[in-house]
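Data deposition worksheet. Section B asks for the primary sequence of the deposited chain exactly as it was used as input, without tags or linkers unless they were present during the calculation. Section C holds the resulting structure in token form. Section D is free text for depositor observations; keep each observation to a single sentence. Incomplete worksheets are returned to the depositor.
Section A, Depositor: J.P.
Section B:
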Amino acid sequence: MDNGFLAIALLALSAALIIAEVFIPSAGMLAIGMLISLVASFYFAWTAWWATQPTLFFGFVGFAIVMLPVVTVGAISWLPKTRFGKRILLEAPDGPVEEAFAREEEQLRNLIGRRVKAITPLSPGGLISVDRERIHAYSQGVVIERGATVEIVKVSGNRVVVREVLEEEQSVPAPSLENDSNTDDSNGDDDDTNPLDLDLREAEN
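Section C:
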């Protein structure tokens, strides 16, 4: 059999093996077979053309050096479009999925500052109850017992971080803006007292 034909056939076999390596997990065995086939192809090309047509030999080697990377990149690009590639590769989330994730994160961020109950121990992960809804949360590296009051302090993605609210913090009532405004109004009424009215009252007495 002509050595030139063997060189071309082995180069085609090398391309087929590199494509198979992309689609079939073989722990590198197909890649090793590709390298052996490529070396054999260069050997038969050398015996066929080096002595008589060295230009043809160098052209064959150059074509092989360009062709094999192009075939590899093409196979890798084609892989995600195949049924096998879709099974082994994770597809990026589409628009609706990303929007739903963003809405969920925004809803969780609105919970920052809320004080709720831990319905399971947090060590550091566990469950908290927010408006009768169970949410997975994490403590700040400490164990929080079940039934403890916790405060949501941070949201990162869908990860909710809480801290335990101490008993002395629970006994302190939250400040009331209404009481503050009433206090300010009463102070303002005292400040608005006219000194002339006080003098008239003293004179009548």
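Section D:
Residues 174-193 have pLDDT under 50 and may be disordered.
The radius of gyration is 39 Å.
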